């Protein structure tokens, strides 16, 4: 409890204009929080439980400092506390007002009442395990109680949920549209309480040495390859890494065309990456973009060839058929701009892969294919600056996730 208490005491001392009085002690004990969790059917991470047992924190506006690319470059404004308004800025750090939502911890009934009131508009998210923590400039902040990860999601993206009242649909919506804001609740508290500049891309508080991790070094002698794209082909490419066109082999099941997903995107072959019985993997995505991966199917040795005339599988629109080649390289020469097998986990994927315990394999950048045909994510200049990060989960299954 000492770390959480120290952070809150520091905030109380630093922001006398916001908190002119000392915080009152929480009225909850450990057994009360256990009872609340059972009643609400919500899991609370250990650090959040400690927070609830420390002080009766009011809901209020606080000021946080951001310095990552996700918000700093897109906002272009910062909150001036002296002028009490947002002003234009070209600085690489910005201040934003955060509406910090807290719950009544004076007792069990008071907490449950405040929880329902606060989550009235996002009840499905609460039932799915997401605890609303706050909001800034249209971005809602949720704590995933199941994983102890703090997410931000633009409020309009909540309506991307297939069913606004369904907890399962709410979790799927978060997986597809939310951004990992902080590693965990305790880091979120540090952002709120210390006022230090927070790089929300790398999840590092500047000046907090304990938050920084040494840079990963590529393994000496490990297999690494630059992924090179060939010229577009007018004839079907078979038994070759490729993007576009139709698959070489008939999969065990035909992906369902649902919500514009289930369209063939690419075939990645097993160059000694996994079980030798696996011949390749087929990746399926949305009809017009690779920013939603719907199916990843293992093709094992002995699979029959796919008959294009059967029309069982839909190919993705507006993308040519390109062969891909793997050129051996020194892993130390792979950087964030390279489509490659091996090297370090890209910054965009690092926290997600760490949380999901995915062993990194490689990355395909949107710029690998010309004219933004992959369509993962766009910059203001119109370039495709998204990535498809690949890796293996704990069960050895290939994962391909888009990030932009």
Can you tag this structure with a few keywords?
alpha+beta; 10-stranded antiparallel β-sheet; 9 helices
Strand order of the largest sheet: 15-14-13-12-16-11-17-18-19-20
User: Could you give a short account of the major beta sheet?
Assistant: 10 strands, antiparallel
The averaged pLDDT comes out at 89
Strand content: 25-35%
Q: What is the quaternary state of this protein?
A: single chain
Structural class: alpha+beta
Shape: elongated
Element string (H = helix, E = strand): HHHEHEEEHHEEEHEHEEEEEEEEEHEEE
- Got a strand count? 20
Number of helices: 9
Characterise this structure.
By secondary structure, this protein is α+β, with helices and mostly antiparallel strands. Helix content is 22%, strand content 27%. The strands form four sheets. Strands 15-14-13-12-16-11-17-18-19-20 form a ten-stranded antiparallel beta sheet, with helices on one face. Strands 1-4-5-6-7-8 form a six-stranded antiparallel beta sheet. It has a two-stranded antiparallel sheet with strand order 2-3. Strand 14 (278-286) and strand 15 (293-300) form a beta hairpin. It starts with a helix and ends with a strand.
SSE arrangement:
Layout: H1 2-14, H2 30-40, H3 46-54, E1 60-66, H4 69-75, E2 77-80, E3 85-88, E4 94-100, H5 108-118, H6 123-127, E5 130-136, E6 139-144, E7 149-154, H7 167-177, E8 179-182, H8 185-194, E9 198-199, E10 204-205, E11 225-229, E12 242-243, E13 261-269, E14 278-286, E15 293-300, E16 322-328, E17 340-341, H9 347-356, E18 359-365, E19 387-392, E20 398-403
Antiparallel strand pairs: 1-4, 2-3, 4-5, 5-6, 6-7, 7-8, 9-10, 11-16, 11-17, 12-13, 12-16, 13-14, 14-15, 17-18, 18-19, 19-20
Helix pairs in contact: 1-8
